[in-house]
User: Fold Alpha-tubulin N-acetyltransferase 1 from Gopherus evgoodei.
Amino acid sequence: MEFPFDVDALLGERVTAVDQHLQPPGRRGPGYTAAHRVDLQQQLMTIIDEMGKASAKAQNLPAPITSASRMQTNHHVLYILKDNEVKTAGKGAIIGFLKVGYKKLFLLDRHGVHNEVEPLCVLDFYIHESLQRHGYGKELFQCMMQRERVQPHQLAVDRPSEKLLCFLRKHYNLQGTIPQVNNFVIFEGFFADQHAPVRKLPPKRAEEEIKPYSLTDREFLKEEVEPPWPFNQSHSLTRSSSLGNSPVRTCLKPFLNEQELLRNLRLCPPHVAAHQLLNGAEGGPAARRRRTSSLTRSENTSH
Ligand SMILES: CC(=O)SCCNC(=O)CCNC(=O)[C@H](O)C(C)(C)COP(=O)(O)OP(=O)(O)OC[C@H]1O[C@@H](n2cnc3c(N)ncnc32)[C@H](O)[C@@H]1OP(=O)(O)O
Assistant:
């Protein structure tokens, strides 16, 4: 992917790690000013936004899950792989990116027991269409694991595509998954290594404390395109196919029991339908409870 500015100079190294500060690490010439810094940061933001869009398109997602603004509000790390061999106009090009981040998750082990863990998660991964199956994905993944000091089986993967599952199977022999009730996929050996979830956390902002566990990075897409259960039931099949034809995506769709649903609704930003459900609109559980108790009362009085 090429840009109208010098990607090669902007990013410096072959693989660049970018965090929420969005600081381009590239070369600084003499006379480097604050205005230059803003320009370079703008260029980096353009790269992230364009790559995020391309990744979303490749995965048939309705909106990008990676963008400069989302990077600024999350503690994620974006590894960007550049091609400094491209001689056209001498500006370099972007080959792809890999986004990872630590997330607090409730994950089931082989015995069906919930474990609260905070593993490094693979959140978004994209290699430009023209360069897939050339080994660049592996180069980027290896670099990420080395810098993050993590082994493949210690990772949790957020709703992997069929291509990514093939990639993980081929390069890291990851195939036996441990079934989960959320969209994260983990592999055999995840719980065997006690060091996996251990991580020193930076101080957290208050609102992060109340995020529902196991909420995937892709969950916000769902909020944008459909109302909560049960209002989404009539077109759930249509939505699955709008997310792509991967059978994995369909079968990994979580199903919630009523208690989990109510907990999630309380933790989510207010939604009209959620309010109605919780506050007892016609058809909601509260209304049903009211109806049931009034029925019981009237039955009692009639006897
Ligand atoms: C959590 C998430 O990010 S889910 C979304 C993952 N991203 C996508 O699906 C976007 C589209 N795909 C891609 O961008 C890339 O194919 C990636 C990132 C999955 C892999 O990067 P690549 O550079 O292609 O991988 P690399 O060349 O190192 O390894 C190739 C292996 O990946 C897998 N793979 C790559 N492309 C495909 C494909 N079209 N079909 C099936 N398997 C594929 C295969 O195992 C392949 O080995 P093979 O060619 O011997 O069959």
